[in-house]
């Protein structure tokens, strides 16, 4: 028996709606759809060779996530990147991770961060270099620190916060020097936790996240400039 989602009295297989959502989100993340761009459901449906129903369902989902807006009688628009809002979200993220480190001070630190130390405290020749792999490992690192704190609600909120930052955070490892810096900074944070110096670990963590925040802003603006230049030349 198949599961189906309904929209406008039509039946849409859930996998088709999910695939349309995933492809649209990739278009946003890769700046094929640029901030400020206007488009219609018909245009997207024609390009993706699907009906309007899964497109509409995907767009409403992206609207709830804050990526697009619907404009009366004008179709849809990609929402501009709001770096002031991103800065505010980053501050929430830092508070959540610092709080988790404080909770970690009352736990068995070795068992809590053992797996993370195996990944990040390794010789340079054993480090990952693929940008996407390092990004996923970095996500696991920060989620792992929060999980080690032992509060599932903090982990849930942190997960939601990271999802809101993902459109820019995934660009952090497109530069080789950022990969190297991340390994070194993660290892330093873990070393301080292992030694029980939670205050120093918190200081290093905040500095690490701030450096990443500034770097992804520069990379994002550069990629947006290049994407707009390429679009204007086509």
From TrEMBL:
It holds the Pfam family GntR. One of its GO terms (molecular function) is DNA binding. Keywords: DNA-binding, Transcription, Transcription regulation. Residues 14-81 form the HTH gntR-type domain. The keyword Transcription regulation applies. This is GntR family transcriptional regulator. It comes from Acidithiobacillus ferrivorans.
